[in-house]
Design brief:
It is built from ten helices and eleven strands. It is α/β, with parallel strands linked by helices.
Length: 255
């Protein structure tokens, strides 16, 4: 994602790369960000000092891990920099830190920056409003073998959309995997199934299974460039925005 974001920013007439951060101990530290991304040099050396990087920019884009994201949110608030967060599997503590930081600066948080996924979520909510009372809802997602969290953040995002359409609380009504003699499927639950293998970028299908018919809504990502493009779009939208916690529906004007 870092390389793709660098390429997107370098190609944009509206944005300029001022800092690039990698984890401590990375082989890329000290190298030119453009060279690492397969571009001509951009005169921006990759560092592991996220605080200095955030202080230097108007908007930071974060694709890291929960604990780091929490620190980045606090740094953004301290330095008055906006923040775009694409990190998933955030803990309650991470989420709280982001919400507190959003009182001071604009923060866009999204499990998926694909415009297609945001539209899919809107369709899922609409379908759940109509079919949720009679159909069983199952969400199936598949990602590459190296993905570490399950279900994916996007699957949970779609689950939240379905739950909102049904008027239920996803944390109380979700089923995360099945094994053994689980008994009959409970009515009103939202099920999740996670598949991992190969180099799959991201496939998500929301199934509304009723008696005599089944509706399936699917999104398949062919490459990761769509996520970098959406993240940059969110960053440009957030620049100069009032403090607050926003999502891609805000960025796309769908709220």
């Amino acid at each position: 994602m870092g390389r793709m974001l660098i390429r997107q920013i370098a190609a944009s007439d509206a944005a300029m790369l001022v800092a690039a951060v990698d984890r401590a101990g990375s082989d890329h530290l000290g190298q030119d960000a453009g060279t690492v991304a397969g571009l001509p040099p951009l005169s921006v050396a990759i560092s592991d000092d996220s605080d200095a990087a955030i202080a230097a920019c108007d908007i930071a884009i974060d694709f890291s891990t929960g604990g780091n994201t929490r620190q980045h949110a606090l740094a953004a608030a301290a330095h008055g920099s906006g923040l775009v967060i694409g990190t998933t599997a955030l803990s309650a503590e991470d989420d709280e830190a982001i919400s507190v930081a959003a009182l001071s600066v604009p923060i866009v948080v999204a499990a998926n920056f694909s415009v297609g996924v945001v539209l899919l979520a809107a369709l899922v909510k609409q379908a759940a409003e109509t079919l949720g009372a009679t159909a069983d809802i199952e969400i199936v997602e598949m990602h590459h073998r190296s993905k570490v969290d399950s279900p994916s953040g996007t699957a949970l995002y779609l689950g939240e959309a379905a739950a909102a359409g049904c008027g239920i609380d996803l944390t109380e009504q979700s089923i995360r995997g099945r094994d053994g003699l689980t008994g009959a499927r409970a009515k009103g639950k939202i099920g999740f199934a996670s598949l991992r293998g190969g180099d799959v970028v991201g496939d998500h299908t929301v199934i509304f299974a009723g008696n005599g018919e089944r509706v399936e809504l699917t999104h398949r990502a062919a490459n990761r460039e769509i996520f970098a493009e959406g993240a940059l779009r969110a960053a440009l939208w957030a620049a100069g925005r009032a403090p607050g916690r926003y999502g891609m529906t805000d960025v796309l004007g769908l709220s």
